[in-house]
Amino acid sequence: MNLRILLVALALGLVQALSVSQPYRVVGLNGTARLRCLFTSSPEPEEMRVSLLKGLHGQEEVCGSYVSAAQAAFQARGTLGCSGELSAGRVDLRVEGLRGDDTELYRCVVEVLYPPPYLRRSGNGTLVYVPGEMSAVWEYLAQKEDQETPGSSSLQVPFPLVAAIALLMVISVRLPLLLHVKKRLYSSRNLVVNSVFSPPDCTDNPAQKRHVDREAEEQRRP
Asked: Is the pTM for the entire model greater than 0.70?
C-alpha cells in the first residue's frame, strides 16, 4: 500500500514537473529593463509566486509578488520597482530604478502554489546590463560654469573663420617668396638669351676692329 502511494506521488511529480528559462541578456535603457521568464508546467498553475533574485547565486531578492490566473497584472514589492503580467507559459517583468552599478545576473524564481504539489524552480539567469549615465560629465561642466565669474566672457570663434584666417596668413608669407623666386628665374633666362643671340663685341680684338673699320670706310667711298 505504501509503495503504491509512493509510486502515485512520484508519477504526479513527474507529470507536474516545472522548468523555468530566461533570455541570456537584456539591456536596461533609462533605468528600466524588461525581463521575460518562460515556464512550463502541466497543468497550468492557477496560483503562483514570482520573485527576482540578484547575484550569481541569487543572494538578494529585489522584488516578488503573488500572482493568480484571475488577475494577470501585478505589482511586486522590493528594493526595486517591479511590475509584471502573467500569460500562458510566461511572466513579463518590468524592472525600474536601475543604475549603472545594478548590472548583474538576475534569476527569475517561479513557485507553483496551486494546484498541488508545491513546486519551485529558478531560471538560468539573465545578465541585465545597465549603461552608465553621463552624470560625471554633466557635473564637471556645471562646475566649470560655476567657476566662471559673471563679468567674464569668452569669445567663441567659428572654426571656418579660423581656417580662413590661417590660410590668409600662409598666403601672405608664401606669396612674396614665390614672386622673388619667379623674378630671379626670369632674370636668369633673359641673361642666357642675350648671351646667345647678341652679336659679338669686337672692341677687345684690335685686328678685327681694324677690319671692321676698313669695311666701313670702303662703303663710304663713292
From this structure: no
